[in-house]
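Annex B. Sample input.
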Amino acid sequence: MQKTRHQIRQHVRQQRRALCKQQQRRLSQDLPQQFQYHPKLQQAKHVALYLAHDGELCTLPLIEWFWAQGIKTYLPVLDPYNEGQLLFLHYHADSPMLKNKFGIDEPCRQQNTAIEAHDLDIIFTPLVAFDQSGNRLGMGGGFYDRTLAPWFEHKTGPYPIGLAHDLQCLPQLPTESWDVPLPEVITPTKIWQWK
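Annex B, continued. Sample output.
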């Protein structure tokens, strides 16, 4: 019997939460090596990432590597005025943080720290699972699908790259019409690319 999207989410989230802190730390430390010669980063000046939550691949070593390269980093924030939309706020080592309604750390909203999504060069997206065709399964809120829709429909806006543990790759995922497939997903050991 084919698993539902909900069952897949539960199963994969349980697997990634089962990784011990030492495994999480080691895997996240390997991530910047995947980006050293990545062609999309050669021109990038503004990138959006996320802070790990619920067993997601930790992005802090990657964020620190971007800072060392002079690349400005931004984090997603729930838009208080547009339900279901994301804002992207500049993130640095001294950014004041607060927890959103999902318990995820995000920068405090301050004037002049936001960037329009279409002005980002790359958006690194979290995901629950991905398959060998580039389909992405998120948490179910549709935040990233809405944000990435212009790229998917017109190839305009920021280039999306998924970040995940290797264990989050599945042979095939059930998809919906609103799902935005990714052109690539990067894990600590591999770069998966699709055209």
